[in-house]
Design a protein that fits this description.
Layout: E1 4-5, E2 8-11, H1 15-26, E3 31-34, E4 46-47, H2 53-56, E5 60-61, H3 73-81, E6 86-88, E7 94-98, E8 104-106, H4 107-113, H5 116-134, H6 147-151, H7 155-162, H8 169-182, H9 191-200, H10 204-208, E9 218-220, H11 225-234, E10 240-241, E11 246-250, E12 259-263, E13 268-271, E14 273-276, E15 287-289, H12 294-302, E16 304-305, E17 308-315, H13 319-322, E18 331-337, E19 344-347, E20 356-363, H14 364-371, H15 376-392, E21 407-412, E22 425-426, H16 432-435, E23 446-448, H17 461-481
Parallel strand pairs: 1-13, 2-3, 2-14, 3-10, 7-18, 11-15, 14-23
Antiparallel strand pairs: 4-5, 6-9, 7-8, 11-12, 12-13, 16-22, 17-20, 17-21, 18-19, 19-20
Helix pairs in contact: 1-11, 1-17, 3-17, 5-9
Length: 490
């Protein structure tokens, strides 16, 4: 069967791949997008059919969900272009913490237990961490004066070196942040890699924050996947080929003027350039001819996805706000836990539509244990029982006051063949200073994009869009230099 041809073959129909395809077509070049899944969006996956969904018209995001409208101009521009409705993240009220012994404390109670020495030690450590983050160039972290030292240790070791032993809560809090942001553990990631990740995202505290400009500020009522489907709809009809997993990328032709991409079903596509828009660990499943350069192969072999999952519980009313004991006051549905399976929860309610829900992040080591449960019903039971125990501790009516959810929607990403976890590939010690800028380097006629490659808001939707724009700019520049004829701009 003859290969189908286009100027550019894009592999992956997530945000970065779709953005690249859109910009390539806007520049007047033809493009085919191959997607392994039966849908577009990558880690943008929204569920809009569940009990009560017809009434509320609110989609549940089981993948990427949050953004902001100040420091994330690329993704915000798409939200505006497609006329999507945003919902500001509400954090008003008291939060809860589940401690190592299973005890439940309110945020106020937990803070009161901290001694002046502990507070001083925590302030000192996070000030040092923040200063180190600010000193790192997220585009070239290996140029930092202490890069070799920072990349030789894990983040857990960095914490042990710089956190006072008088504040044992520091390593627990830091590890909780790593779990929430990356689905990993602090002893799995390079200190340099994590600090550079924070530098790309405007700092650790801001990445975790729901305030304006923070990483958790806004949600999309229609679901973030609508951004991807809207992007795909702007492409020339027939551009996106779903259920087309790629098996090989061959650029060994004697003329060296093309690259051939072949799917697992044997269909071949030939272009002058290819854009690879899948997570680095997925490169291991692809056959490259010629083989990947050593640095890129090292990345493929070493980077790994964190454990990432979500569970959303839908209720018929905001009981956490209305039924908490008078001594505690209204809760904001934030629940932090060291034990899991839920490590961190937030309200994902939309009051104006009478949609009431709590979404829990199930990540890191506790997430792996949860993902290993054999059935969805067992996973649901683990989440419901944990939240009933946690919230029931401060309900006026105890655990009995925590109702059964009217709907339960989960997103378990570890078991998904073309993801293997999420939200972004992480690096252990010794990799970043060895491979340096190999992550974004072009290999022959193959260009590499994805949220993990972004210099700004790495690992976020903003980073994905920016990387797609970068990849398209690279490709269009090369096509123009080679004199490829434009088919006509969109």
């Amino acid at each position: 069967m003859a290969a189908e041809t286009a100027d550019v073959i894009v592999i992956g129909a997530g945000l970065s791949g779709l953005t690249a395809a859109r910009e390539i077509q806007r520049a007047g070049y033809s493009c085919i997008v191959l997607e392994a899944e039966d849908r577009v969006g990558g880690m943008l996956l929204s569920v809009d059919q569940y009990p009560g969904s017809t009434d509320s018209k609110v989609a549940i995001d089981v993948g990427a969900a949050w953004l902001n409208n100040t420091t994330q101009s690329a993704i915000w521009g798409l939200v505006q272009r497609f006329g999507l409705t945003t919902e500001e993240q509400n954090s008003e009220g008291e939060l809860l913490r589940e401690m190592e012994d299973g005890g439940i404390l309110t945020g106020t109670e937990g803070n009161k237990k901290l001694t002046p020495d502990e507070l001083k030690a925590m302030a000192s450590f996070y000030a040092h961490l923040g200063a180190t983050v600010s000193s790192i160039d997220p585009a070239k972290p290996w140029t930092h004066p202490s890069a070799a030292e920072l990349d030789s240790i894990t983040l857990a070791q960095f914490c042990a070196q710089h956190a006072s032993s008088s504040a044992p809560l520091i390593p627990l809090l830091l590890n909780a942040s790593v779990r929430y942001l990356l689905g990993a553990e602090a002893d799995e990631v390079s200190a340099l890699w994590f600090l550079a990740f924070c530098a790309a995202g405007t700092g650790l505290q801001n990445m975790m924050a729901a305030r304006a400009g923070g990483g958790q500020h806004l949600r999309i009522r229609e679901g973030t996947q609508r951004i991807a489907t809207s992007l795909a709809a702007e492409l020339t009809p027939g551009t996106v080929r779903l259920s087309s997993p790629v098996a090989s990328i061959d650029q060994s032709t004697t003329s060296s003027t093309s690259v051939t991409v072949t799917t697992t079903s044997g269909h071949s596509f030939r272009g002058a350039r290819a854009v690879l828009a899948v997570p680095t660990p997925q490169h291991r499943s692809l056959s490259f001819t010629p083989a990947l350069p050593p640095a890129k192969q090292r990345l493929a072999d070493s980077a790994h996805m964190g454990c990432f999952g979500k569970a959303t519980l839908v209720y018929d009313r905001p009981w956490w706000r209305d039924d908490a004991s008078a001594a505690v006051g209204p809760l904001n549905a934030i629940f932090e836990s060291i034990l899991g399976p839920v490590i961190y929860s937030r309200s994902t309610s939309v009051p104006s539509t009478n949609h009431w829900s709590i979404t829990g992040s199930i990540v890191g080591a506790p997430g792996r244990r949860w993902a290993a449960l054999p059935t969805a019903e067992e996973r649901k039971k683990a989440v419901v029982e944990q939240l009933r125990h946690g919230f029931g501790a401060v309900m006026a009516g105890g655990e009995k006051a925590v109702p059964e959810p009217v709907a339960y929607v989960e997103g378990e990403w570890v078991g998904r063949k073309y993801f293997g976890g999420g939200p972004v590939p992480v690096m252990g010690p010794g990799v970043l200073t060895e491979v340096r800028g190999a992550l974004t380097e072009t290999f022959g006629r193959v260009h590499f994009v994805g949220a993990e490659t972004a210099e700004v808001w790495r690992g976020y939707m903003e980073g994905a869009v920016r990387s797609g724009l970068r990849g398209a700019e690279e490709v269009v520049g090369e096509l123009r230099k080679e004199g490829h004829q434009q088919a006509g701009k969109l």
